[in-house]
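STRUCTURE:
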């Protein structure tokens, strides 16, 4: 009976130092280039215009001149419990706000994007569809989800159909106030009384002047008559 011979096969060639060094070099290069191929890099900063951002982050993730927009729902419901039973977080330093402390809300947009702001932190006009009201189809999604009359997105379906933002509440009242301020003031009763009194006083002064003039003429006439009689 022949003895059984066991042959061990090695399917992986042995790694020498040269191969290990080569693999390590490739890994380091890939690690170094990874942030360049990932939006925001490792710390998620310098995010370009129109890309998503996180308003709950500890810093502004967007590039210079950009800020992370806030949705109306996030602003209205922060600190509350959502319908799913989760707590809605308070907005963090990463959320865009202007110099007055008001958050930059992108109307009828359910998501957050890096969008341009002016020197005071207010949103400015952008050609990027994600930085415009309705954010490139976001309004239609809100309309499908909650309808046209659910706060804080009242009128969202109308906007999705027309592309026209609804008028702000109170604009009629402001117009009325402006018209009232432009109107000439109506004189009150006191002014009317003073006017009448002034007219009466002027009339009295005129009459007194006329009377004095008549008396003076009469005295002159009498003096002339006496002088004529004496000369005769």
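SEQUENCE:
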């Amino acid at each position: 009976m022949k003895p059984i011979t066991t042959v061990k096969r090695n399917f992986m060639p042995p790694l020498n130092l040269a191969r290990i060094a080569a693999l390590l070099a490739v890994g380091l290069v890939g690690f170094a280039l990874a942030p360049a191929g990932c939006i925001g890099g490792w710390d998620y900063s310098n995010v370009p215009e129109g890309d998503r951002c996180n308003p709950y982050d500890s810093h502004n993730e967007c590039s210079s001149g950009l800020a992370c927009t806030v949705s109306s729902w996030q602003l209205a419901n922060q600190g509350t419990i959502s319908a799913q039973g989760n707590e809605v977080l308070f907005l963090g330093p990463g959320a865009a706000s202007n110099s007055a402390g008001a958050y930059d809300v992108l109307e009828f947009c359910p998501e957050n994007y890096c969008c341009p702001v002016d020197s005071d932190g207010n949103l400015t006009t952008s050609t990027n569809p994600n930085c415009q009201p309705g954010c490139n189809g976001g309004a239609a999604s809100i309309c499908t989800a909650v309808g046209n009359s659910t706060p804080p997105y009242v009128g969202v379906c109308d906007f999705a159909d027309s592309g026209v933002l609804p008028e702000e509440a109170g604009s009629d009242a402001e117009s009325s106030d402006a018209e009232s301020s432009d109107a000439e003031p109506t004189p009150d009763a006191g002014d009317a009384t003073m006017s009448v009194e002034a007219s009466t006083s002027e009339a009295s002064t005129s009459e007194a002047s006329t009377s004095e003039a008549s008396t003076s003429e009469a005295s002159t006439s009498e003096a002339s008559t006496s002088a004529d009689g004496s000369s005769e």
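REMARK: Residues 67 and 114 are 5 Å apart (CA to CA).
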